[in-house]
Amino acid sequence: MPFLPRAVMPWRRKEKASQKLYGAIVAQARLPVFYRGYGVPDTLEGRFVVLSLNLFVVLHRLKAEGGEALLQSQELADRFKDDMETVLRELGVSDLRVPKTMRALAASSAALLKAYERAFAGGEAQLASAIADALPLDKGAAEAAGLRLAHYVRQCIRSLEAEPYPAIKAGTLVFPRVSAPC
């Protein structure tokens, strides 16, 4: 069989919707405004918090949809897990330590997402507190950043609730424009 460029291979042409969604989540989490304007430290831990918040927003939207959207939620969670494993390997975690580290990371990620869900149901102050608890900052700075991020999360959830599910199902995700808080 002759060599075919990647774009021509039919089995590689179509990216899964969950991969496109995850790509949008990662792109959103990488926006400099979170690290310059919201007070999140530009560290591995800070980036993890912002990534998990954006993942939470999308998972929350899919959960509200129910049905087949729950399968897409699982695909997103699996993609997140795979991404975290890749990051660990790039950071030099040995092959023997990756499984143990991944189990711990998966447990803490699941706990963090559940904490966000419970806090979101309790209102903006509870959400701000849950976010502040996750941030690698001193108490005052974490509380200030948590308040700003809680407002952002609520804005995102409102925006995604207005998005038609078929677009999200197809992998199209439009986050609201993010600007530095006043």
Q: Would you give an account of this structure?
A:
- This protein has one domain.
- The protein is built from 9 helices and no strands.
- It has helices at 10-13, 17-29, 33-36, 44-65, 69-90, 98-122, 124-134, 139-162, 165-169.
- Helix 4 crosses helix 6 (98-122).
Question: How many helical elements?
Answer: 9
Query: Which outline best applies?
Result: globular
Structural class: mainly alpha
Total number of distinct structural domains: 1
Radius of gyration from CA coordinates: 17 Å
Mean pLDDT: 87
Q: Ranges with pLDDT <50 over ≥5 residues?
A: 1-13
The ordered string of helix (H) and strand (E) elements is HHHHHHHHH
- The amount of beta strand, in percent, is under 5%
Task: Give a short account of the largest sheet.
Answer: none
C-alpha termini separation: 59 Å
**Would you count the extended β strands for me?**
0
In brief:
This protein has 182 residues and is an all-alpha fold. The protein is built from nine helices and no strands.
Strand-helix topology:
Elements: H1 10-13, H2 17-29, H3 33-36, H4 44-65, H5 69-90, H6 98-122, H7 124-134, H8 139-162, H9 165-169
Key terms for this structure?
182 residues, mainly alpha, 9 helices, 71% helix, globular
